[in-house]
Amino acid sequence: MKEITITQLRRAMPSATLDNCQRFLGPLNNAMRRYDINTPMRQAYFLSQVAWESGSLRYTREIASGQKYEGRKDLGNVKPGWGIRYKGRGLIQVTGHDNYVRYGRFIGKDMEDTSQRNWLLLEKPEYAADSAGWFWMTHGLNELADNDEHTKITRIINGSTVTAKNRLPCLRNAKIALGLI
Q1: What are the residues facing 61 on neighbouring strands?
Q2: Helix pair angle (150-158, 40-54), 10° resolution
Q3: Can you give the pTM of this predicted structure?
């Protein structure tokens, strides 16, 4: 896999600050290596979705309260307060009790820890990027990226396709940065 450079990351996310690009470059490259996001097309799709979901590396925690996830059984939020507690974190906004628990098992951390220290890891650059890569891999997004399936990738990450058109400029920037167009 060819690692992305700081220049490529800045081109892929032109509104990201230099400081954030520097903070996340290593963690993003590590995640792409670990989760076989190892072709320019896969990297472009991954970076474009990260750009949209994180506000170009500004957010590793969902801005909204998480109230809209209360009672969402599809996310495993079956107890009161779990929508708020398990709101989106990481660069692709891993959301919901069940996703937190699955990722926690994968990395050997108890994401049900009531002290909050483990699930707050998702806000740190290395875990924010790694959890995004993990979500990407476990949902088969490499194969969809290989087939240029923008709308399907958006549906899996966002739960709908409402923002698919809005994400296209991010994809275009990432493809340009990686020499695909």
Answers
A1: 89
A2: 40
A3: 0.95
CA atoms within 13 A of residue 22's CA, in its CB half-sphere: 3
How far apart CA 5 and CA 147 sit, in angstroms, is 24
Q: Which position has the token pair 């009672």?
A: 71
3-state secondary structure the chain: CCCCCHHHHHHHCCCCCHHHHHHHHHHHHHHHHHCCCCCHHHHHHHHHHHHHHHCCCCCCECCCCCHHHCCCHHHCCCCCCHHHHCCCECCCCECCHHHHHHHHHHHCCCCCCCCCCCHHHHHCHHHHHHHHHHHHHHCCHHHHHHCCCHHHHHHHHHCCCCCHHHHHHHHHHHHHHCCCC
Rg (CA), the chain: 15
Q: How far apart are CA 128 and CA 116, in angstroms?
A: 15
- Tens of pLDDT, residue by residue over 54-97, are 999 999 999 999 999 999 999 999 999 999 999 999 999 999 99
**Comparing 31-40, 119-128, 168-177, which segment has the lowest mean pLDDT?**
119-128
Torsion (CA) 148, 150, 151, 153 in degrees, nearest 10 = 100
**Interval 14-46: pLDDT, tens:** 999 999 999 999 999 999 999 999 999 999 999
